[in-house]
Amino acid sequence: MTSTAVRVALRVRPLAQREQLTNCTECLSFIPNEPQILIGTDKSFTYDYVFDPNTPQNDVYKKAAGPLLDKFVDGFNATILAYGQTGSGKTYSMGTGLENPADTENEGIVPRCIIDLFQSLEERAQRSADFKYEVYVSFLELYNEELIDLLNPHTSHKRKNHSSPGHNSMSHNNNNNNIPAAAEVTIREDVAGNIYWSGVKEELCTSPKELLGFLEKGSLCRTTGSTDMNSVSSRSHAVFSVILKQQRPQEEAENHDRSSSPLGATKKLQSLTSKFHFVDLAGSERLKRTNAQGDRAKEGIAINAGLLALGNVISALGDESRRTAHSDPHAGLCVAC
Fold this sequence. Notes:
The chain is α+β, with helices and mostly antiparallel strands. It contains 11 helices and 15 strands. It has helices spanning 17-21, 57-73, 90-94, 109-127, 153-163, 169-175, 208-221, 255-260, 287-290, 295-317, 329-336; strands spanning 9-11, 28-30, 36-39, 43-46, 49-51, 78-82, 132-143, 146-149, 186-189, 195-198, 203-205, 224-225, 233-234, 237-249, 269-280. Helix 2 (57-73) crosses helix 4. It starts with 8 loop residues before the first strand and ends with a helix.
């Protein structure tokens, strides 16, 4: 495949138990050694990567996510978006659910990236005494067009109280005396036209275990619900971000500059900041198939609106004549990634 800023991988999950009980069958076929699938006999689709139902988690990570981690450590920003219908296995592939942390074989992309990241940074630090680094993490949720900081205890506590049927303002205030007030999470645009979010808490991490702890903490605060298509359906879009700040010796651009440098000259140090966003999108759904009602139906409508905004952003980024309306929280969040 030619080099491109965006690559698409297709992963096909095995049939679920419910599907097997209703005698569902596979509708796709795979072309050996080619990133291509067939629907029926006349419709073919080509991607950068194709993973069949028997592909293990490690192979998905090594082929699709591993190269992005290398670029991230080199100082480039990277984003992985998990997109698909509800119940298609997005959270499993990303590894943000943490159903069984002891099962390393079934670890998803995010835990594997975190472990390899710290290993790579430690190796670089051992090779050069001048190499320094810091790793931070943030975890955002976009639920019903509201941005929520999953690592801020005030935000999650406030939402829990508001979602409880018997809460009142007196008990809410008493329970939050020791919790610092949370700044509102907003999406902004700087003078250079770059999109960023403000009011987001970033936690410093010194080990994979500590970073995975924040992933688990935020995942437990995510909004989930049951529908006819998925008993533990994610009802929000989640953005788990790893921020790498590093200081390393700056390489000279040309050999003659290096040879002309006086002996004992001070090494030039280069400061780099890069971000790796792992986005677990809520699944697209049809209300008549999920049989969602009330709040679940409203969530489904908001989810589909967000996915539509994502499509508009991707189209706009590929067309310089179009400009995306960042006032939409879905669109702004996508561009900020």
